[in-house]
Amino acid sequence: MPRRIDAHHHLWDLTRREQPWMDGPWAEPIRRTFTPDDLAPHLDAHGIGATVVVQSSSSVEETRELLALADGSDRSAGVVGWADLTDPGVGEVLAELASGPGGDRLVGLRHQVQDEPDPRWLDRADARRGLAAVADAGLVYDLLVTPRELPAALDAVRELPRLRFVLDHAAKPPVASGERDPWARRLAALAALPNVDCKLSGLVTEADWEGWKPEQVLPYAWHVLDAFGPGRVLFGSDWPVCTLAASYDEVVSLAETATQRLSDEERAAVFGGNAARAYGLGT
Q1: Is pTM beyond 0.70 here?
Q2: CA-CA distance, 61 to 55, in Å (whole number)?
Q3: Residue by residue, what is the 3-state secondary structure of 134-152?
């Protein structure tokens, strides 16, 4: 069986930089520094041997720091960083990151598309040029979108078949309201394209933080598994953001419940093998 992998977590040091998205009292529980040592006990408790750390701010310098943290670490297998996709020189920036400390751990790039005022931001010519540069660099692109941006994401994935995409947080379905469409319909359309995987992550923070129950979240997880199939779904904790609504233990338990109907081999793929394939970890 492949090693267990947490394909989506964050680290940040508030003594180095602020996280602008922490823009209200809601963020107080996570408005502190989180380090690999803080995460390690959770990984140990669940037999997770490797992780992918994902950018949390629009900062190339943060990406350098995450790569440096991963350098020489047996557990930090990959870094999904940030660079300005609209910069004509983004290819050179990616090459510089890859050649620096920990550069061999750079596996992907992400931008907070969900925060862009234009829901069709991914359609922009400069954004598409940047996505092509990500493909040229042999990296994966993580899609951070909501149902609003899924149509543009669908077009981007369709138009760039040589780029591997990974959809973060299942495009943030409206779990708290209990609604399914247009999220479910748009997710299924995206899943029909072969060059995109999906992370089973971030669902608890789309639910009612104080009163969510597994039976409210599981139908969304099952739709992800039905749409993408167990060969293209990656477990991710979204720690420490998940702790706004659930503990690390609860997130793992929810994912294990969602995958109970799968075979042992399929569950092993969701909890590690698919992340290793999608991001080229250990290759």
Answers
A1: yes
A2: 11
A3: HHHCCCEEEECCCHHHHHH
Measured in degrees and rounded to the nearest 5, phi and psi for residue 86 equal -85, -5
**Nearest in space to 29 (alpha carbons), one of 251, 246, 243:** 243
Phi–psi pair at 233, nearest 5 degrees: -120, 135
∠ CA 98-100-105, rounded to 5°: 50
Summarize pLDDT for 6-51 with one digit per residue, the tens: 999 999 999 999 999 999 999 999 999 999 999 999 999 999 999 9
d(CA 7, CA 235): 6
pLDDT digits (tens, 9 = 90+) for 37-49: 999 999 999 999 9
| Whether the bond into 240 is cis, omega within 30 of 0 | yes
Residues 30 and 239: beta-carbon distance below 8 Å: no
